[in-house]
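Form 7-S
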Amino acid sequence: MKPWFRLLGQGALLLITWGAIFEIGLRLQQYFGPLFDLEMASVNLNWESNVLNHKPAPESQNLCIYGDLTGFSYQRHYDENGVRVIDDKALLEGCRKPLSVLFLGDSFMEGYDDENTLPYHVAKYIKKERGVCLKTHNAGYTSYSPAIFVPQAKKLLPIVHPDYIVVDVDETDLYDDFARYRKLIVRNERGQNVGVKASPIGHACSVGLMEAREHPLYLMRFAAKGWLSFVHMPAVIKKNRPDDLVLFGYSQDHGADLERKYAEPLSTFQQNLQELADILKDYTEDGTRVLFIFHPHLEHLKPDAEGHVWNDLVSSTVERMCINNGFLFFDATEALKRRFGSRPEEFYWPGDMHFSFEGLEEYSNAVAAFMASDMFKRRASALDDGDQSQTPTGLGVRSADQVQ
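Output:
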């Protein structure tokens, strides 16, 4: 046998051997983990929506986007309208007529399992501290922002009929509105936002994963998933998403005249906020029934090496909109500075932007305290000064006895 032929045979045998080892290894990690999911069984196109861009599936949801980092596994359930379905019997026990509150937001509002969400903590706090019962409707979902809140509010308000509305707008929403959703908004002949189309980026990712799982060998799936992640998807993102705005780049900017520098993204953001405001005003006819809240990221609380914290470009924009429309606004930054003390990093997941369970509860309690004193009490005072029978909802929130 010729030496080159022998070497070729040995090389082929070595390649087959190592391929078999990797194939077995990948299957074992899938069985015991997985550390790197190659089944991709839950990947489908059911998330796509041409009204809300993306939507939760009604069935059980496992391991949220930050579950992999926290190691915490839980389930979430949604109704057909995208509102969380939770067990709130304990919160409503003994309540004759709870106040209905609709919560809009992104993953910070979505939260974790049933009891680790802002709406749940708010209801628990207000019942315990003020004796007032809330029926909460949590419509928060990952990466939702004002562009999506507009068609979402149009859909949910006639269904939920809330007495109060709480909207969580955060630092990511300026980027989401401009970079993710601006070109996907569908407007009618009057220029109104009637929906946000499904993302071509998300569609390409899901289709690519579905194609990768068709390979019989896990080694082939591994290679296909790697090519999708490092070659195909960066090209799709570059084609469909502008690179002139970087997530959190505007938050870290300490230059002069930021409003002029980020005029175009701010214009898109402000337009969506005002369109949402118009919908909420038409529904409530009373700004004191609408509350916009803003939460700090860790970088708002902990200075960097140069002693800088993130600016208030986003929060001040939301606050200005609230003032112009007569809405309530609560920026939790100062309250959480006091609550978190000198080690705010202990209230966020390591390597992740989201609050830990303890941080989420502290944020929720700060929001609840504001709602109890500035939302419910202010509205009760307004009703005391006028004819309660003429209010849009007929609410007279003057004491706990009147609600229970």
